[in-house]
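Much of the work behind modern protein science is quiet bookkeeping, done one molecule at a time. The protein below has been through that process, and both of its lines are reproduced in full.


***
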Amino acid sequence: MENLFELARFDSYKEDNRREVKKAEGGLPNSLWDTYSAFANCYGGVIILGVKEDKGGNWHTTGLKNATKLKKDFWDTLNNRKKVSINLLKDDDVETFSVAGTDDVIMVIWVPNAKREQKPVYINDDLFGGTFRRNWEGDYHCTRLQVKTMLRDQAEETMDMEVLDETEIEDLNQDSIRGYRNSHKSFKPGHPFERLDDNEYLRVIGAAGLSKEDKRLHPTAAGMLMFGNEYDIVRFFPEYFLDYRENPDTVIRWTDRLQSSSGEWSGNLFDFYK
């Protein structure tokens, strides 16, 4: 989250699936809450008030007339359960900055990705009409099916989502990750995930997650099984063993056989099935 916005890099940013700017000239814009819901239900993001976007997508500060009052109004509304279903923010997730060379003050709101059990995040006390998702630089209403899916997924964390704190992202097989991304790109050209770096990509597909211990990104159990090397996989899953046999004839026992312990491949699920 901390890499999503730095004041020193202001001129290099444009709106995307994790950044949104709003002028907020007349107070808190209603669309702010659509974006809050959308970011929370997707990958998280930052909302920057006191900024406008021109036709070329460039940002320009407009400033806030009364940043202190605006900040109080924001917190009051965020904690109103009739307006917002859940407050995901901590005190330091809302910051104000003075822009050098101007009299402008802007406010930056860091919205985290809601946990599975917290979704759907919705507004206006309207579960099906007030749940949004982020798609590139726009906020869109979720369908009833998407909302029902989030409700279903509120169940306890599954085993494949466990974050493996003892290993690092770098321990995953990089060739397997590249191969998977290339397959994804071929199957769905232009998908927004193409723009993500490897770490963010692994996180959004569930192959990596933030550790509760060190707050850093580590492989999940699913990520290890999908992209790990066999010698790492068996550290966490001692009974792990894949056995593939080609058996086109019932008379012949098998014509070809490949096992995860053969040393002919990395031993992970992606390389096994590709």
